[in-house]
Amino acid sequence: MPLIAPSVLAADFANLQAETQMLNASTADWIHVDIMDGVFVPNISFGLPVTAAIAKHATKPLDVHLMIQQPERYLEAFRDAGANVLSVHYEACPHLHRTLQQIKDLGCKAGIALNPHTPVSLLSDILPMADVVCLMSVNPGFGGQKFIEHTYAKVRALKAMIQEAGCATLIEIDGGVGQGNAKALVEAGADVLVAGSSVFAAANPAAAIEALKNI
């Protein structure tokens, strides 16, 4: 049974407290928070104050995905804002080992996010340091995009690497996840499913989460 991490990027920003409380009452496992700086990705979402506001009402771990340049400058601030999992992009971290160590020293789970064009083979030397690898299954920056089919092959390849390394790294899928592909992703080896539009655009978001949980 996968962990479900609804992305509040797709939530009603004018009612974030109510949306967070809905997630608290649902079968969601984590709350996924997408941070975008308009530099690393071509969009700006929200930052530290909104993360802290969500954390104030959340009873589930905050899975904070930093789609930003120089994430190492903000790790402590996001931990203090309520992050439990902090994922940084491989493409944004020239000193990735140091950055992951910094996250662990802050007491958070350390995640590596990969853009669709970045091969999982590049993680072979760093994989044991990662608690989570987040595979982007759309190009990061905007919600509601179409799922990239090559993701299945990346999941299978990454799962084989994790098993060969003997580590407990979780595979997270972010982008275009819904009822149509969740089962195939889990069968390929995914452990955590990030769902935005497929949850928050549903007539009953809590039921949509439950359906993903029980695929």
Structure, briefly:
Pathway: Carbohydrate degradation. The chain is of the alpha/beta class and 215 residues long.
Describe the protein.
The chain is α/β, with parallel strands linked by helices and 215 residues long. It has a single domain (3-213), classed as TIM Barrel. The chain is 33% helix and 20% strand. It contains eight helices and eight strands. It has helices spanning 16-25, 48-57, 75-81, 96-105, 151-165, 182-188, 197-200, 205-213, and strands spanning 3-6, 31-36, 62-67, 83-89, 109-114, 132-136, 170-174, 192-195. The protein has an eight-stranded parallel beta sheet. It is globular and about 45 Å long. It starts with a strand and ends with a helix.
What brief labels describe this structure?
alpha/beta; 215 residues; TIM Barrel; 8-stranded parallel beta sheet; globular; 8 helices; 33% helix
What oligomeric assembly is this protein in?
single chain
The percent of residues in helical segments reads 25-40%
Which series of helices and strands comes N to C?
EHEHEHEHEEHEHEHH
Overall average residue pLDDT? 97
Give the biggest sheet: 8 strands, parallel
C-alpha end-to-end distance:
8 Å
Number of domains: 1
CATH superfamily: Aldolase class I
What's the CATH architecture name? Answer: Alpha-Beta Barrel
What Rg do the Cα atoms give?
16 Å
Describe the strand arrangement of the main beta sheet, using strand numbers: 1-8-7-6-5-4-3-2
Portion in beta strands: 15-25%
CATH topology: TIM Barrel
Q: Poorly predicted ranges (pLDDT <50, ≥5 residues)?
A: none
CATH class: Alpha Beta
Structural class: alpha/beta
* Contiguous helical run count: 8
